[in-house]
């Protein structure tokens, strides 16, 4: 938790639009202090469960959670749009999130 408190202001100051993380053998999209976080690790051998009860700190909201069969997170980025799609092995989109923002290309 102490590391999260230290990193949070840096992410905002640096203009970070999204955070991608892995290893946890689940999929979860969270919104933390205005920044979407994608946690994806469902390509691993085993799947983890989710804690029961409130497990998130104030200012953090779980948007969607999934720990079923294997899936992939497809990220498409253009200078105007970031699209994250969580897709099943048979092509079903389980989660989709768009960030629309103009950015400068050097």
Topology of this structure?
Layout: H1 2-13, E1 19-21, E2 27-32, E3 35-40, E4 60-66, E5 71-77, E6 81-88, E7 93-100
Parallel strand pairs: 1-3
Antiparallel strand pairs: 2-3, 2-4, 5-6, 6-7
Low-confidence stretches: none
The number of strands is 7
Query: How confident overall, as mean pLDDT?
Result: 81
The share of residues in helices is 10-25%
Tell me the radius of gyration: 15 Å
Briefly note the structural class of the backbone.
mainly beta
By DSSP (H or I, 4+ residues per run), the number of helices equals 1
The portion of residues forming beta strands comes to 35-45%
* Series of H and E elements: HEEEEEEE
Question: Main β-sheet, in a few words?
Answer: 4 strands, mixed
Order of strands across the main sheet:
1-3-2-4
Mass-distribution shape: globular
Question: What does this molecule look like?
Answer:
A hairpin with a 4-residue loop joins strand 6 (81-88) and strand 7. The strands form two sheets. This protein has a four-stranded mixed β-sheet with strand order 1-3-2-4, with no helix packed on it. Strands 5-6-7 form a three-stranded antiparallel β-sheet, with no helix packed on it. It has one helix spanning 2-13; strands at 19-21, 27-32, 35-40, 60-66, 71-77, 81-88, 93-100. 11% of the residues lie in helices and 42% in strands. The longest helix has 12 residues, at 2-13. The protein contains one helix and seven strands. By secondary structure, it is mainly β.
């Amino acid at each position: 938790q102490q590391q999260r408190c230290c990193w949070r202001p840096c992410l905002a100051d640096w203009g970070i639009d999204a955070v991608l993380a892995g290893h946890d053998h689940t999929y979860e999209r969270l919104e933390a202090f205005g920044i979407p976080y994608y946690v994806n690790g469902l390509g691993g051998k085993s799947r983890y469960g989710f804690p029961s009860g409130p497990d998130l700190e104030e200012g953090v909201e779980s948007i969607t959670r999934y720990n079923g069969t294997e899936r992939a997170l497809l990220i498409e980025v253009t200078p105007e749009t970031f699209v994250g799609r969580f897709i099943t092995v048979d092509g079903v989109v389980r989660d989709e999130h768009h960030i629309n923002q103009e950015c400068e290309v050097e």
